[in-house]
Amino acid sequence: MKLDTVIFGGGVAGLWLLDVLSRRGQHVVLLEAHELGSGQTIASQGILHGGLKYTLQGILTRSASQIREMPNVWRKALAGSPGLPSLKKTVVRSEFCHLWHTQSLVSRAGMLGARVGLSVTPEKLSPQERPECLANVPGGVAKLGEQVLSPFSLITDLFEQYRDRVLKFDLNSLEFDLDSPGEVRSIRLSDEQSGGQLVLKPHHVVLTAGAGNAELRARAGLSTAAMQRRPLHMVLARGDLPELNGHCVDGSRTRVTITSDVTSHGQHIWQIGGQVAEDGVAMEPHDLIAHVQKEVAAVLPGVSLDRTEWATYRIDRAEGAVSGGTRPENVQLLFAGNVTTGWPTKLVLAPVLAEELSQAIRSQEPEFRFDPLPLAHWKRPVVAQPLWETITDWIGYPASAPVRHVA
Q1: Dist CA 78 CA 179 (whole Å)
Q2: Which residues share a beta bridge with 341?
Q3: Burial of residue 398 (number of CB atoms within 10 Å: 0-12, 13-18, 19+)
Q4: Cα 64 → chain centroid
Q5: What separation in angstroms does the CA of 71 have from each of 74, 96, 228?
Q6: Tens of pLDDT along the chain (407 residues)?
Q7: Residue 15: in which H helix or E strand, if any?
Protein backbone atom coordinates (compact mmCIF):
# COMPACT_ATOMS: atom_id res chain seq x y z
CA MET A 1 0.00 0.00 0.00
CA LYS A 2 1.59 3.28 -1.12
CA LEU A 3 1.40 6.13 1.38
CA ASP A 4 2.70 9.64 1.81
CA THR A 5 3.52 9.20 5.49
CA VAL A 6 3.54 6.53 8.18
CA ILE A 7 3.54 7.82 11.77
CA PHE A 8 4.76 5.64 14.63
CA GLY A 9 3.37 6.49 18.07
CA GLY A 10 -0.18 7.29 19.15
CA GLY A 11 0.37 9.88 21.85
CA VAL A 12 -0.68 13.50 21.51
CA ALA A 13 2.21 14.32 19.15
CA GLY A 14 1.45 11.54 16.68
CA LEU A 15 -2.32 11.99 16.73
CA TRP A 16 -2.09 15.77 16.31
CA LEU A 17 0.23 15.27 13.34
CA LEU A 18 -2.14 12.65 11.91
CA ASP A 19 -4.93 15.23 12.02
CA VAL A 20 -2.82 17.92 10.35
CA LEU A 21 -1.60 15.68 7.53
CA SER A 22 -5.03 14.12 6.98
CA ARG A 23 -6.69 17.52 6.65
CA ARG A 24 -4.03 18.48 4.10
CA GLY A 25 -4.98 15.51 1.96
CA GLN A 26 -2.07 13.20 2.67
CA HIS A 27 -2.40 9.43 2.50
CA VAL A 28 -1.23 8.77 6.04
CA VAL A 29 -1.65 6.10 8.71
CA LEU A 30 -0.56 5.94 12.34
CA LEU A 31 0.85 2.80 13.95
CA GLU A 32 0.73 2.09 17.71
CA ALA A 33 2.41 -0.90 19.37
CA HIS A 34 0.71 -0.64 22.76
CA GLU A 35 -2.20 1.56 23.91
CA LEU A 36 -2.85 5.03 22.53
CA GLY A 37 -1.37 7.62 24.86
CA SER A 38 0.46 5.05 26.97
CA GLY A 39 3.59 6.49 28.50
CA GLN A 40 4.02 10.23 28.68
CA THR A 41 0.66 11.50 27.39
CA ILE A 42 -1.61 9.56 29.74
CA ALA A 43 0.81 10.18 32.64
CA SER A 44 0.82 13.96 32.12
CA GLN A 45 -1.14 16.37 34.28
CA GLY A 46 -2.82 17.96 31.27
CA ILE A 47 -1.85 21.57 32.01
CA LEU A 48 -1.68 23.77 28.92
CA HIS A 49 1.31 25.77 30.12
CA GLY A 50 1.80 29.34 29.02
CA GLY A 51 5.46 29.54 30.03
CA LEU A 52 5.08 30.80 33.58
CA LYS A 53 7.23 28.10 35.19
CA TYR A 54 10.09 28.99 32.85
CA THR A 55 10.15 32.69 33.88
CA LEU A 56 10.49 32.30 37.62
CA GLN A 57 14.04 33.69 37.50
CA GLY A 58 12.50 36.93 36.21
CA ILE A 59 13.63 36.55 32.58
CA LEU A 60 11.95 35.39 29.41
CA THR A 61 13.76 32.11 28.73
CA ARG A 62 13.80 30.36 25.35
CA SER A 63 11.40 27.76 26.78
CA ALA A 64 8.93 30.46 27.83
CA SER A 65 9.22 32.22 24.47
CA GLN A 66 8.47 28.97 22.61
CA ILE A 67 5.49 28.08 24.75
CA ARG A 68 3.81 31.40 25.52
CA GLU A 69 1.37 31.41 22.56
CA MET A 70 0.28 27.80 23.02
CA PRO A 71 -2.67 28.36 25.40
CA ASN A 72 -4.41 30.41 22.69
CA VAL A 73 -3.79 27.73 20.05
CA TRP A 74 -5.29 25.08 22.29
CA ARG A 75 -8.28 27.25 23.22
CA LYS A 76 -9.09 27.61 19.53
CA ALA A 77 -8.78 23.85 18.96
CA LEU A 78 -10.97 23.10 21.98
CA ALA A 79 -13.56 25.50 20.56
CA GLY A 80 -13.48 23.73 17.19
CA SER A 81 -11.97 26.64 15.25
CA PRO A 82 -11.16 25.88 11.59
CA GLY A 83 -7.58 25.15 10.59
CA LEU A 84 -6.83 23.18 13.75
CA PRO A 85 -7.74 19.75 15.11
CA SER A 86 -11.30 19.82 16.44
CA LEU A 87 -11.15 19.04 20.15
CA LYS A 88 -14.74 19.91 20.98
CA LYS A 89 -15.25 16.55 22.73
CA THR A 90 -12.11 16.84 24.85
CA VAL A 91 -12.90 17.30 28.54
CA VAL A 92 -11.45 20.46 30.07
CA ARG A 93 -10.94 19.77 33.77
CA SER A 94 -10.50 23.45 34.57
CA GLU A 95 -10.42 26.73 32.65
CA PHE A 96 -7.62 28.04 34.86
CA CYS A 97 -4.98 27.19 37.43
CA HIS A 98 -4.24 28.83 40.75
CA LEU A 99 -0.80 30.06 41.66
CA TRP A 100 0.20 30.51 45.28
CA HIS A 101 3.44 30.97 47.12
CA THR A 102 5.05 30.87 50.53
CA GLN A 103 5.56 33.97 52.64
CA SER A 104 9.29 34.33 51.95
CA LEU A 105 10.66 37.35 50.07
CA VAL A 106 12.31 34.99 47.59
CA SER A 107 8.93 33.54 46.73
CA ARG A 108 7.45 36.98 46.22
CA ALA A 109 10.28 37.83 43.84
CA GLY A 110 9.57 34.65 41.93
CA MET A 111 5.91 35.62 41.69
CA LEU A 112 6.86 38.97 40.14
CA GLY A 113 9.24 37.23 37.74
CA ALA A 114 6.33 35.19 36.44
CA ARG A 115 4.87 38.32 34.83
CA VAL A 116 7.72 38.78 32.36
CA GLY A 117 6.65 38.77 28.72
CA LEU A 118 3.82 36.24 28.84
CA SER A 119 0.41 36.35 27.16
CA VAL A 120 -1.02 34.46 30.15
CA THR A 121 -0.14 36.30 33.36
CA PRO A 122 -1.28 35.86 36.97
CA GLU A 123 -4.32 37.79 38.20
CA LYS A 124 -3.97 38.44 41.93
CA LEU A 125 -6.95 37.36 44.04
CA SER A 126 -8.25 39.10 47.13
CA PRO A 127 -8.76 36.99 50.27
CA GLN A 128 -12.49 36.90 49.50
CA GLU A 129 -11.87 35.55 45.98
CA ARG A 130 -9.68 32.64 47.04
CA PRO A 131 -11.06 29.10 46.86
CA GLU A 132 -11.64 27.54 50.26
CA CYS A 133 -8.66 25.19 49.99
CA LEU A 134 -6.33 28.20 49.58
CA ALA A 135 -7.99 30.37 52.23
CA ASN A 136 -5.23 29.83 54.81
CA VAL A 137 -2.24 30.18 52.49
CA PRO A 138 -0.01 32.86 54.08
CA GLY A 139 1.39 34.17 50.80
CA GLY A 140 -0.33 35.60 47.75
CA VAL A 141 -2.79 33.69 45.56
CA ALA A 142 -3.36 34.35 41.87
CA LYS A 143 -5.48 32.99 39.06
CA LEU A 144 -3.74 31.91 35.88
CA GLY A 145 -5.45 31.30 32.53
CA GLU A 146 -3.83 27.92 31.91
CA GLN A 147 -6.48 25.34 31.05
CA VAL A 148 -6.23 21.81 32.39
CA LEU A 149 -7.57 19.06 30.16
CA SER A 150 -8.06 15.32 30.48
CA PRO A 151 -5.31 13.54 28.53
CA PHE A 152 -7.53 10.44 28.31
CA SER A 153 -10.36 12.37 26.65
CA LEU A 154 -7.92 14.23 24.38
CA ILE A 155 -6.51 10.97 22.99
CA THR A 156 -10.00 9.47 22.72
CA ASP A 157 -11.28 12.54 20.86
CA LEU A 158 -8.50 12.47 18.25
CA PHE A 159 -8.62 8.69 17.85
CA GLU A 160 -12.37 8.59 17.20
CA GLN A 161 -11.97 11.09 14.36
CA TYR A 162 -9.28 9.02 12.62
CA ARG A 163 -10.00 5.45 13.68
CA ASP A 164 -9.82 4.26 10.06
CA ARG A 165 -6.19 5.45 9.84
CA VAL A 166 -4.92 4.11 13.19
CA LEU A 167 -3.57 0.56 13.38
CA LYS A 168 -2.09 -1.60 16.10
CA PHE A 169 1.09 -3.50 15.29
CA ASP A 170 3.30 -6.10 16.93
CA LEU A 171 6.75 -4.65 17.54
CA ASN A 172 8.31 -8.12 17.53
CA SER A 173 7.17 -8.83 13.98
CA LEU A 174 7.76 -5.33 12.59
CA GLU A 175 10.16 -5.31 9.62
CA PHE A 176 11.80 -2.34 7.93
CA ASP A 177 13.10 -2.87 4.40
CA LEU A 178 15.98 -0.39 4.17
CA ASP A 179 17.83 0.97 1.16
CA SER A 180 20.37 2.46 3.59
CA PRO A 181 20.36 3.62 7.24
CA GLY A 182 17.38 5.94 7.66
CA GLU A 183 16.03 5.24 4.17
CA VAL A 184 12.93 3.06 4.55
CA ARG A 185 11.62 1.45 1.36
CA SER A 186 8.77 -0.47 2.98
CA ILE A 187 7.29 -1.51 6.34
CA ARG A 188 5.95 -5.02 6.88
CA LEU A 189 3.37 -5.69 9.61
CA SER A 190 2.31 -9.18 10.65
CA ASP A 191 -0.65 -10.36 12.71
CA GLU A 192 0.35 -13.64 14.36
CA GLN A 193 -3.23 -14.48 15.36
CA SER A 194 -4.79 -14.12 11.92
CA GLY A 195 -1.66 -14.72 9.88
CA GLY A 196 -2.38 -11.54 7.96
CA GLN A 197 0.33 -9.27 6.62
CA LEU A 198 0.37 -5.67 5.52
CA VAL A 199 3.12 -3.97 3.51
CA LEU A 200 3.26 -0.17 3.61
CA LYS A 201 5.40 1.83 1.18
CA PRO A 202 5.68 5.39 2.51
CA HIS A 203 7.51 8.41 1.16
CA HIS A 204 8.07 9.57 4.74
CA VAL A 205 8.34 7.82 8.11
CA VAL A 206 7.80 9.89 11.26
CA LEU A 207 8.68 8.62 14.72
CA THR A 208 6.67 10.26 17.53
CA ALA A 209 6.67 7.31 19.91
CA GLY A 210 8.32 9.02 22.88
CA ALA A 211 10.62 6.56 24.62
CA GLY A 212 9.79 4.05 21.87
CA ASN A 213 11.67 6.20 19.36
CA ALA A 214 14.97 4.64 20.46
CA GLU A 215 13.94 1.10 19.44
CA LEU A 216 12.40 2.31 16.19
CA ARG A 217 15.49 4.32 15.30
CA ALA A 218 17.64 1.26 15.90
CA ARG A 219 15.48 -0.77 13.52
CA ALA A 220 15.84 1.96 10.92
CA GLY A 221 19.63 1.76 11.24
CA LEU A 222 19.91 5.03 13.19
CA SER A 223 21.66 5.95 16.43
CA THR A 224 19.77 5.65 19.72
CA ALA A 225 22.13 8.14 21.40
CA ALA A 226 19.99 10.93 19.95
CA MET A 227 17.46 10.45 22.77
CA GLN A 228 17.66 11.21 26.48
CA ARG A 229 15.40 10.28 29.38
CA ARG A 230 14.69 12.49 32.39
CA PRO A 231 12.80 10.54 35.05
CA LEU A 232 9.97 11.69 37.30
CA HIS A 233 8.34 9.99 40.28
CA MET A 234 4.78 11.32 40.50
CA VAL A 235 2.28 10.97 43.34
CA LEU A 236 -1.47 10.30 43.33
CA ALA A 237 -3.91 10.95 46.17
CA ARG A 238 -7.59 9.98 46.23
CA GLY A 239 -10.44 10.44 48.66
CA ASP A 240 -12.07 13.40 50.38
CA LEU A 241 -10.10 16.10 48.58
CA PRO A 242 -11.10 19.52 47.24
CA GLU A 243 -10.86 20.32 43.56
CA LEU A 244 -7.57 22.12 42.96
CA ASN A 245 -5.47 22.82 39.89
CA GLY A 246 -2.36 24.88 40.33
CA HIS A 247 1.22 25.48 41.38
CA CYS A 248 2.81 26.40 44.69
CA VAL A 249 5.80 28.54 43.76
CA ASP A 250 8.78 28.72 46.10
CA GLY A 251 11.42 31.05 44.71
CA SER A 252 12.35 30.01 41.17
CA ARG A 253 10.82 26.53 41.36
CA THR A 254 7.36 25.00 41.46
CA ARG A 255 7.37 23.32 44.86
CA VAL A 256 4.28 21.25 44.05
CA THR A 257 1.90 21.16 41.09
CA ILE A 258 -1.52 19.65 41.80
CA THR A 259 -4.22 18.78 39.26
CA SER A 260 -7.62 17.22 39.96
CA ASP A 261 -9.90 14.70 38.33
CA VAL A 262 -12.54 12.14 39.32
CA THR A 263 -12.08 8.38 39.15
CA SER A 264 -14.53 6.02 37.47
CA HIS A 265 -15.87 5.27 40.98
CA GLY A 266 -16.53 8.94 41.69
CA GLN A 267 -13.56 9.56 43.98
CA HIS A 268 -11.66 12.83 43.81
CA ILE A 269 -8.09 12.34 42.64
CA TRP A 270 -5.01 14.55 42.82
CA GLN A 271 -1.96 14.21 40.57
CA ILE A 272 1.01 15.77 42.32
CA GLY A 273 4.17 16.81 40.53
CA GLY A 274 6.61 19.70 40.54
CA GLN A 275 9.85 19.68 42.52
CA VAL A 276 8.62 16.79 44.67
CA ALA A 277 8.45 14.57 41.56
CA GLU A 278 12.02 15.54 40.66
CA ASP A 279 13.25 14.85 44.19
CA GLY A 280 11.23 11.64 44.32
CA VAL A 281 13.28 9.95 41.59
CA ALA A 282 15.79 8.87 44.25
CA MET A 283 13.08 7.78 46.73
CA GLU A 284 11.14 4.59 47.25
CA PRO A 285 7.35 4.98 46.89
CA HIS A 286 6.59 4.88 50.63
CA ASP A 287 9.29 7.46 51.41
CA LEU A 288 8.12 9.75 48.63
CA ILE A 289 4.50 9.53 49.78
CA ALA A 290 5.53 10.45 53.33
CA HIS A 291 7.54 13.40 51.98
CA VAL A 292 4.72 14.64 49.73
CA GLN A 293 2.14 14.35 52.50
CA LYS A 294 4.30 16.69 54.61
CA GLU A 295 4.81 19.06 51.67
CA VAL A 296 1.09 19.21 50.89
CA ALA A 297 0.28 19.86 54.55
CA ALA A 298 2.84 22.69 54.54
CA VAL A 299 1.67 24.41 51.35
CA LEU A 300 -2.07 23.88 51.95
CA PRO A 301 -2.61 24.70 55.63
CA GLY A 302 -6.07 23.78 56.82
CA VAL A 303 -6.75 21.19 54.12
CA SER A 304 -7.49 17.83 55.74
CA LEU A 305 -5.82 14.75 54.29
CA ASP A 306 -7.79 12.36 56.49
CA ARG A 307 -9.54 9.53 54.66
CA THR A 308 -7.16 9.73 51.71
CA GLU A 309 -5.10 7.04 49.98
CA TRP A 310 -1.83 7.53 48.12
CA ALA A 311 0.17 5.89 45.35
CA THR A 312 3.07 6.74 43.03
CA TYR A 313 4.14 6.10 39.46
CA ARG A 314 7.39 6.59 37.59
CA ILE A 315 7.57 8.03 34.10
CA ASP A 316 10.49 8.99 31.88
CA ARG A 317 10.39 12.21 29.88
CA ALA A 318 11.83 11.04 26.57
CA GLU A 319 13.39 13.90 24.64
CA GLY A 320 15.95 14.70 22.00
CA ALA A 321 19.36 14.60 23.65
CA VAL A 322 20.92 17.92 24.67
CA SER A 323 24.26 18.73 26.26
CA GLY A 324 24.32 17.89 29.95
CA GLY A 325 21.01 16.05 29.80
CA THR A 326 19.06 19.17 30.77
CA ARG A 327 15.54 20.04 29.61
CA PRO A 328 15.41 20.95 25.89
CA GLU A 329 14.32 24.53 25.24
CA ASN A 330 11.86 23.56 22.50
CA VAL A 331 10.63 20.73 20.30
CA GLN A 332 13.28 18.35 18.98
CA LEU A 333 13.47 17.10 15.36
CA LEU A 334 16.04 14.86 13.69
CA PHE A 335 16.15 14.13 9.95
CA ALA A 336 17.87 11.13 8.34
CA GLY A 337 16.96 9.85 4.89
CA ASN A 338 13.17 9.62 4.77
CA VAL A 339 12.90 9.10 8.55
CA THR A 340 12.09 12.01 10.85
CA THR A 341 12.21 11.63 14.63
CA GLY A 342 10.30 14.08 16.83
CA TRP A 343 9.84 14.80 20.51
CA PRO A 344 7.46 17.64 21.55
CA THR A 345 9.20 18.09 24.96
CA LYS A 346 5.87 19.20 26.51
CA LEU A 347 2.30 18.14 25.74
CA VAL A 348 1.33 21.74 25.06
CA LEU A 349 3.95 21.96 22.27
CA ALA A 350 2.40 19.17 20.17
CA PRO A 351 0.96 21.76 17.72
CA VAL A 352 4.44 23.25 17.18
CA LEU A 353 5.95 19.84 16.50
CA ALA A 354 3.15 18.91 14.09
CA GLU A 355 3.46 22.17 12.16
CA GLU A 356 7.23 21.89 11.80
CA LEU A 357 6.94 18.26 10.75
CA SER A 358 4.17 18.94 8.25
CA GLN A 359 6.24 21.69 6.62
CA ALA A 360 9.25 19.38 6.39
CA ILE A 361 7.41 16.45 4.79
CA ARG A 362 5.19 18.17 2.27
CA SER A 363 3.98 15.86 -0.50
CA GLN A 364 2.45 16.50 -3.88
CA GLU A 365 -1.30 16.87 -3.93
CA PRO A 366 -2.68 13.30 -4.28
CA GLU A 367 -4.69 12.54 -7.38
CA PHE A 368 -7.36 10.64 -5.42
CA ARG A 369 -8.75 10.49 -1.92
CA PHE A 370 -7.30 8.20 0.70
CA ASP A 371 -9.08 4.82 0.72
CA PRO A 372 -8.97 3.13 4.16
CA LEU A 373 -10.85 0.02 2.96
CA PRO A 374 -7.71 -2.19 2.70
CA LEU A 375 -7.12 -1.46 6.42
CA ALA A 376 -10.66 -2.18 7.56
CA HIS A 377 -9.96 -5.60 9.06
CA TRP A 378 -6.68 -4.74 10.75
CA LYS A 379 -6.51 -4.48 14.55
CA ARG A 380 -7.10 -1.13 16.26
CA PRO A 381 -5.42 -0.12 19.52
CA VAL A 382 -7.36 0.98 22.59
CA VAL A 383 -6.83 4.18 24.55
CA ALA A 384 -4.70 3.83 27.70
CA GLN A 385 -6.62 4.28 30.95
CA PRO A 386 -5.64 7.01 33.43
CA LEU A 387 -3.02 5.61 35.79
CA TRP A 388 -5.25 5.88 38.85
CA GLU A 389 -7.60 3.40 37.19
CA THR A 390 -4.87 0.75 36.84
CA ILE A 391 -2.71 1.19 39.97
CA THR A 392 -3.76 -1.32 42.63
CA ASP A 393 -1.45 -0.58 45.57
CA TRP A 394 -2.48 2.43 47.69
CA ILE A 395 -1.16 3.63 51.06
CA GLY A 396 -3.30 5.33 53.71
CA TYR A 397 -2.73 8.66 55.46
CA PRO A 398 -0.42 9.23 57.20
CA ALA A 399 2.14 7.18 55.29
CA SER A 400 3.48 5.78 58.57
CA ALA A 401 0.23 3.84 58.92
CA PRO A 402 0.77 0.15 58.09
CA VAL A 403 -2.55 -0.35 56.30
CA ARG A 404 -2.31 -0.80 52.52
CA HIS A 405 -5.36 -0.72 50.30
CA VAL A 406 -5.80 -2.66 47.08
CA ALA A 407 -8.22 -1.19 44.54
Answers
A1: 42
A2: 207, 334
A3: middle
A4: 17
A5: 5, 11, 27
A6: 999 999 999 999 999 999 999 999 999 999 999 999 999 999 999 999 876 665 555 544 555 566 878 999 999 999 999 999 999 999 999 999 999 987 654 445 345 545 544 456 788 899 999 999 999 998 889 999 999 999 999 999 999 999 999 999 999 999 999 999 999 999 999 987 777 899 999 999 999 999 999 999 999 999 999 999 999 999 999 999 999 999 998 877 889 999 999 999 999 999 999 999 999 999 999 999 999 999 999 999 999 999 999 999 999 999 999 988 888 888 999 999 999 999 999 999 999 999 999 999 876 666 667 888 889 899 999 999 999 999 999 999 998 754 455 55
A7: helix 12-23
CA 95, distance to chain mean position in Å, is 18
Instruction: Compute the residue count for the chain.
Output: 407
Q: What is the DSSP string of 78-123?
A: HTT-TTS---TTS-EEES-EEEEE-SSHHHHHHHHHTTTT-SS--E
